[in-house]
Amino acid sequence: MIDPILNQSPQLATEPPAYQPQFIQEEVLLYDLILRLQSGQYQYIEQNLYEANKLAVNEIRRETVQDAHEIHYINFFEFEVNQICNLGPQGLTLLQEWQEAMPESGYAHAIEAQYWFCWAYRYRSTDTIDKVSESMWLAAQACASRMYVAGLKALQLDPSLWIVPSTIIQSIGAFNEPEWLHQLILTGQLANSEIQYELPKKPAPLAELKTMLQDSGLDITQPLYCPTTRPAALISPLIDRKIIDDKEYWLHASLAIHPKQFQLFRRYINFLLPRWGGSHERIQALIASPLCQHLSDIERSRLEHEIWRDDFAGNYADTDSEPADFRQWLTKTKKQMNSALYPFHRQESAMWIVVSLINRDKMTEALPYAQIALEEEQIDDDDHIIALLNITFKHPEFIPSFVATIKHSALTRETIAARILYAFFCDQGLHGFQRNPTIAEQWFQDAMLAEPQNPIWGGLISTFTEAEDYQSAVLLAKKGYELSNDSATFQLAYLYEQGLGIRQDIECAIKLYQGLSHSYLQEACGNLYVLYRQQLITCRTDDERRTLERKTLDTIIKYEQFDGHNAIYALLRLCSILRTPEHIIEMLPRLQSEAAQGVPEAMAALAAIYGSKKKGHYNYHNGVLWLMACDPENALLEEVKQTVFENSFFGRIKLAWVQAGIEPHQLPGADNNMV
Question: Which end of the chain is more exposed for a tag (fewer CB within 10 A), N or C?
Answer without folding.
Answer: C
